[in-house]
Amino acid sequence: MFTKILVAIDLSTVSENVFEKALSIAKLTQAKLMILHILSHDEQGSPIVEGITGLNYYEMVELETLKSYQKRWQEYVETGVETLKTYANQATEALVSSEYSQLTGKPGRQICQVAQEWNADLIVMGRRGYSGLSQLILGSVSNYVLHHAHCSVLIVQLSPQTE
Q1: Is the dihedral of CA 91, 93, 99, 101 positive or negative?
Q2: pLDDT tens for residues 72-113?
Q3: Which residues neighbour 121 within 8 Å (Cβ) at sequence distance 6 or greater?
Q4: Closest of 110, 96, 99 to residue 31, by C-alpha
Q5: Of 59, 70, 84, 104, which residue is 20 to 30 A from 49 by alpha carbon distance?
Q6: Cβ neighbours around 157 below 10 Å, total
């Protein structure tokens, strides 16, 4: 049924549920997993440049602020890699073949592009649950993937107490 499953994760604890769902499907179908994390300024917990106020992006940013941001971004990158390694190890323990990748960019576009290049036949991902104005302003990664992916997409709906 499925031979290649791309599981899109972020650094939130709810990604554990998404990964578990993808892993269980991979075990049942003997599929290979691609564990993908997209580094994005939109991700909860990603570093921001402090000191920029309002909409004036041309303000001068002090060198120390920039260095602090670069350090926090590097920590964010390293945390992402460690998270991916942890999930890959769990897959190995479950006797599921896996690989992982971490990229930078717009999550929806990157997920669809990697899925197509890797020839995934299923994408498994969660959803943040934005609605109304938040969804209009921030968009919805899961909505983008549903409408642009070349393959089947499974959205793991999380219970309110999980979010």
Answers
A1: positive
A2: 999 999 999 999 999 999 999 999 999 999 999 999 999 999
A3: 2, 3, 4, 5, 151, 152
A4: 96
A5: 84
A6: 11
